Amino acid sequence: MSVDEIAAPPALKAKLSKLGLARRDDLVLHLPIRYEDETKLTPIGVAPGDVPVQVEAEILDVSVQFRPRRQLVARVADASGELILRFLNFYGSQTKQLERARDDGQRLRIFGEIRHGFLGAEMVHPRYRVVGADTPLPVSLTPVYPTTAGLSQAALRKLILPALDAADLTDSLDGEWRARHGMPCFADAVRLLHTPTPTVFEDELQARTHPAWRRIKLDELLAQQLSLRRAYLARRQKGAPVLAAPGTLGAKLLAALHFRLTGAQQRVIGEISSDLCQPYPMQRLLQGDVGSGKTIVAALAACQAIEAGHQAAFMAPTEILAEQHYLKLAAWLVPLGVEVTWLSGSQKKAAKRASQERAAGTAQLVVGTHALIQESVDFARLGLAIVDEQHRFGVAQRLELRRKGGNPHQLMMSATPIPRTLAMSYYADLDVSVLDELPPGRTPIRTKLISDARRDEVIARVRAKVGEGRQVYWVCPLIEESEKLQLQTALDTHAILSQELAGLRIGLAHGRLKAEEKASTMAAFVAGEIDVLVATTVIEVGVDVPNASLMVIEHAERFGLSQLHQLRGRVGRGAHDSVCVLLYQTPLSPTARARLKIIYENTDGFEIARQDLHLRGPGEFVGSRQSGLPMLRFADLESDTDLIELARDLAETLLREAPAQADRHLRRWLGSREELLKV
Questions:
Q1: Contact 424/645 with Cβ under 8 angstroms?
Q2: Which of 124-133, 293-302, 487-496 is predicted least confidently?
Q3: Crossing angle of helices 319-333 and 515-526, rounded to 10°
Q4: d(CA 493, CA 552)
Q5: DSSP H or E stretch at residue 207
Q6: Measured distance CA(384)–CA(304) in Å, rounded
Q7: Beta strand pairing status for 578-584 and 445-451?
Q8: Predicted confidence band of residue 540 (pLDDT cuts 50, 70, 90)
Q9: Ramachandran region, residue 20 (left: φ > 0; alpha: ψ -120 to 50; beta: rest)
Q10: Choosing a second label site near 147 at 20 to 30 A (CA), which of 155, 183, 471, 480?
Q11: pLDDT, tens only, 33-75
């Protein structure tokens, strides 16, 4: 056992492990979620109701009653009044303890909320202890810690307070720097937060704005910044193929396009091109709103890799999205003499084997799904790995694609804009490029909120749109009926719309269709052979049909903001007036109402993402990137922006000028977990 490992029986260690507590430092950083004030006593007669108070009283009577169920009732009193203590769940030993205390003339110190009812003042299941006449009151507020089943607050306190005395609380930050930025020393901050005196402003403690909390938040953010920046620097020590500056292939592709690149696209292409010329692997996140033109940027990066004699791989999370990319990239690059290969899990055995052989040989660009990272797939000379919708892949999956090619450059793309504070914190190990300009000619999309009770009007609007020569998406959240969520399903909707819109061509696409059926349906919609496509969220990203100008989203209140924004972006891709109808069912929950209000009022993906972060917190944005990445327990990305910037600058300084301090800081906050970040 290491010196700082928690000494405890195996059963207790298992419970502590669930809370991530294995070392003294973990206990020191296991901070209270709130406090209770047991430093003062309130007379029963003047104690307010429904707020926690502490009283001290003599026991007048103890009995087990049966009304309406078995319960332990104790009557207590002080000089100002009487109070009933009621225990609905109790042990026989409790009854004996209270009776013995009554007979010995001892007193109870009781903590809980008083309720004033028909039988007078009472507390239900209060916390109490037997005390003598001279038992002193605590001098600090009582901390309440995050815990798990079977682990009491008392047990946690017995571990944490000794850990505070035994742990090394040496500061990892320079005293002059702390004074300049008004930060207390680490030891003072953690001691205050575990054992605050009643004179400390409790509101500041609860709101986590007290200087001690700001120090802890800064330290947490600094640990995150240090670990991610070190992972970034460690990757730069690894060799990667130098992909020479772009030559004629990219120029030929640009000349063949029927559109011009935006200024944002040109800027980002320059950033990526410069990265690819370096002898260390690019780790760049390309983010851009729906329709900002990420695919052509990826294609030009692939051209640079191909012209330098290497392969590019393009991986997408779903078959429909991967196939859309394949068709688009093949249409652009095959006429230029590039060999583009398709690889997916649904291919027949012979076709898959042929694709795998091409990947290991002559293929210059391989496009596919997770099939690209299967053991049976090898690349001949992979120089660039492109991952679309990167937040849907885990760390291990992206790492596997990197291993396939030795150490290729990586370009990760996301159409879910990442708020600035999130990019500064959770993505500090990546270089970030932003496409913040939409191509000209994109038609603004009008969003309408319509109650499900007006479904007939929406169906009439669909018929009118098709009459104008346009096409329509109708999106549903489930494939088949669920007893738990009584939602209109894609299958039912397809059947109903086929009746209501007799004479129109109604298609159906969902995740459980065979790949060939799905591909055939999508191809027919793209070709204009289907008027209305009923689909699940398989069409969320990547589908590009300029003639589709109406999107109907069924049960919009059940979708997340990111999904709603992605789906809405499937229309407005041509010159036609485009509308997105959000069909919702009442009553709406407060969260659903807030989401629909945000999507109705905003079309800018970055603003939607910012408000979504406020609603949901960072967890879902970070997604499966979380494998091995420390979530923030204390800092808040919205209210602590100044601390994020301070931590980012400080991390750079420590790594450059005081690496030993950086090591000490990381050991305190992460222990051995830092190794997980190096992927």
A1: yes
A2: 487-496
A3: 50
A4: 12
A5: helix 202-207
A6: 9
A7: parallel
A8: low
A9: left
A10: 183
A11: 999 999 999 999 999 988 999 999 999 999 999 877 899 999 9
| Helix, coil or strand: residue 24 | helix
Give the C-alpha separation, 203 to 209, whole Å.
9
Q: What is the DSSP string of 447-496?
A: EEEEEGGGHHHHHHHHHHHHHTT-EEEEE-SBSS--SSS---BHHHHHHH
Owner of token pair 């989401």: 595
CB 621 within 8 A of CB 421: no
Q: What does the block give as tokens for 349?
A: 């055995």
| Distance from C-alpha of 180 to C-alpha of 319, rounded to nearest angstrom | 55
If you compute the radius of gyration of the chain from its CA atoms, what whole number of angstroms results? 31
What end-to-end distance do the CA atoms of the chain give, in Å?
A: 28
Q: How confident is the model at residue 676 (pLDDT cuts 50, 70, 90)?
A: very low
Please answer whether residues 402 and 408 qualify as being in contact, where contact means their C-beta atoms are separated by less than 8 angstroms: yes
Distance, CA of 439 to CA of 636 (rounded, Å) = 35
β 127-131/107-113 pair status: antiparallel
**Closest Cα partner for 27 from 142, 211, 212, 162?**
162
Q: How far is it, in rounded angstroms, from Cα 617 to Cα 615?
A: 6
**Hey, what long-range contacts does 655-662 have (CB within 8 A, 24 or more apart)?**
655/226, 655/229, 655/230, 655/233, 658/174, 661/172, 661/173, 661/174, 662/172, 662/226, 662/230
Burial class for 180, CB neighbours closer than 10 Å (0-12, 13-18, 19+): exposed
Other CB atoms within a 10 A radius of the CB of residue 597 amount to 13
Residue the block writes with tokens 């009577």: 61
Determine the residue type at 485.
Answer: L
Once rounded to an integer, what is the mean pLDDT over residues 646-660? 94
d(CA 161, CA 27): 9
Confidence band, pLDDT 50/70/90 cuts, at residue 1: very low
Q: Judge if the upstream peptide bond of residue 417 is cis by omega within 30 degrees of 0.
A: no
Least confident interval from 244-253, 500-509, 608-617, 627-636: 627-636
CA-closest candidate to residue 47, choices 1, 115, 106: 115
The first and second tokens of residue 113, run together, are 């909320």
DSSP per residue over 537-602, as a string? GGGSSS---TTEEEEEETTGGGS-HHHHHHHHTTS--SSS-EEEEEEE-SSPPHHHHHHHHHHHH-
Calculate mean pLDDT across residues 543-571.
87
Q: Tokens standing for 505?
A: 């061509």
DSSP 234-254: HHHTS-----PPP-HHHHHHH
Q: Is 393 helix (H, G, I), strand (E, B) or coil?
A: coil
> Which of 76-80, 207-211, 634-638 is least confident?
634-638
Q: Is 221 exposed, middle or buried (0-12, 13-18, 19+ CB in 10 A)?
A: buried
